[in-house]
Amino acid sequence: MIFQEPVSPTVPSKKLDLGSVNAAVPVGGQTKGETIEAMAGEWKDFTFRPIRESQVSRAMTRRYFSDLDKYAESDVVIIGAGSCGLSAAYCLAKARPDLKIAIIEASVSPGGGAWLGGQLFSAMIMRKPADAFLREVGVAYEEDGDDSNYVVVKHAALFTSTLLSKVLQFPNVKLFNATAVEDLITRPREDGTIQIAGVVTNWTLVSMHHDDQSCMDPNTINAPVIISTTGHDGPFGAFSVKRLVSMQAIKCLGGMRGLDMNTAEDAIVKGTREIVPGLIVGGMELSEVDGANRMGPTFGAMALSGVKAAEEVVKIFEQRQKECAAFY
Ligand code: AHZ
Hints:
alpha/beta; six-stranded mixed sheet; three-stranded antiparallel sheet; 10 helices; disordered N terminus; binds ligand AHZ
């Protein structure tokens, strides 16, 4: 009986009241729930609370569509939730809790290339001084020797899952995964150049079928600042900078160069910047613009490029916001 649909607003409903979207009780929150200890050894009479399937559907869809509505106007969009994008999200969400930050990740699983340290090995190497970022997010590491120039996280997944969980706990961040950025929203500037003013998105599975299906128009998110961290070239990689070339906003790509850990990591961190008004590029996507070397399996530059990307946003945000508001 408690799961009946309401018949009319005047007939009191016995439907279980789930409360509003924001009434969720956090884990370890205000209400006193069951404890695992109390359940242990009591499985004979154990049962879950009864549920109607539509409750589950509505609990998900209501939140998703409310988020789509809320983030259709974002302050910052981060394209790509790899090690650089997540590091940028962490720093920005912490520094600017007033900004609404949408992360768009093409894969079902966020994390990009940072679930393994390199090859198919577990340990993740971070060159000093990027150990500062590990201390900031609370990831344990070991030093290899007394005067080591790098530190080791026992499993790359420990880094990625810790960072991801911190990012997702910020109330001003929403991750849309399984969603690809298919294009950039642009506005004309008075000097004849363009400004990036948002992203064009689609379900990734839809994006992958534009060749064999029609009528699959995308969705949009307006934002005055975008951080693009889609990694080096590949099926989805280097997305924004390749699009900038095809729309003639930049002349050409430098093309990622061969592996040289020493030059690569410094170059990526130092070069993280706004490439065209409204679009900041970081991580390995930047190597395709600047013709920087790759660094292979050492992740310090990805974390610190994320830090720098967040810093760049803080520098330009108000100006770009004002400019975007003046367009439409
Ligand atoms: O799925 C991609 C990945 O999670 C996502 N992505 C790419 N194109 C996208 C698009 N829309 C939405 N159009 C998109 N998401 O971007 C993420 C990139 O993560 P990554 O780990 O590949 O990039 P990163 O720059 O954060 O880290 C790169 C780490 C290095 S260095 C290196 C080498 O020197 O060889 N190789 C890697 C993987």
